[in-house]
Amino acid sequence: MRPGSRRLAAWALLVAAAVWLVPANLLPIMTFESIGRAQSGTIADGVVRLVHSGMPVLALVVFTASLLIPILKILVLAVVYWRTPAHPSPRTAIRAYRLVYWIGRWSMLDVFVVALLAGLMRFGKLATASPEPGITAFALAVVLTMLSAHVFSTSQLWEPDHGNGANP
């Protein structure tokens, strides 16, 4: 794959990830049903419930891993892909890229937790948990971000005309 087409593919995957992140945060990710009472919620709803349940540390972990990091990953990759010759330096951009690439392997943890809960909470009529469309959108956003980082070639960061994408 030519460097210009790699850059374009990385951008396309990153934009798609950003688009899927919107429904991932607006749609419910899971429905809990206990003794006939169903309760659905988004990621943000889960954070609020954890705080109200007296688990602020766990709420902070969920907020960071599920809301903050996916957004920061997209922003960091956008800065790396859009890098101009002046800022950030290629070394700084590569460090940021490697950090995002490394974090990518942990990004599916939320999806695995929902799948695990949905599989374990099968107690007939007493309690169940089922995944909702938000978790699918979240998984797509995570996978697309990982693919974007994988497609991008860091050698492009050393090209003098890299930056605004005007010369792919």
What does this molecule look like?
The chain has 168 residues and is mainly alpha-helical. The chain has one domain (3-157). Helix content is 64%, strand content 9%. A three-stranded antiparallel beta sheet has the order 2-1-3. Helix 2 (43-52) packs antiparallel against helix 3 (56-82) and helix 4 (90-104) packs antiparallel against helix 6 (133-151). It is elongated, with a radius of gyration of 19 Å. The two termini are 12 Å apart. This is Paraquat-inducible protein. Pfam families: PqiA.
Brief digest:
The chain is mainly alpha-helical and 168 residues long. The chain has one domain.
Strand order of the largest sheet: 2-1-3
Q: Could you tell me the strand content as a percent range? A: 5-15%
Total tally of structural domains? 1
The major pleated sheet works out as: 3 strands, antiparallel
- How large is the count of helical segments? 6
Secondary-structure element string: HEEHHHHEH
User: Based on DSSP secondary structure assignment, what is the total number of beta strands?
Assistant: 3
Structural class: mainly alpha
Which assembly state applies to the chains in this document?
A: single chain
User: Segments where pLDDT lies below 50 for 5+ residues?
Assistant: 162-168
Average the pLDDT over all residues and give the rounded result: 83
Shape: elongated
Q: Over the alpha carbons, how many angstroms does the gyration radius reach? A: 19 Å
- N- and C-termini, Cα separation: 12 Å
Helix amount: 55-70%
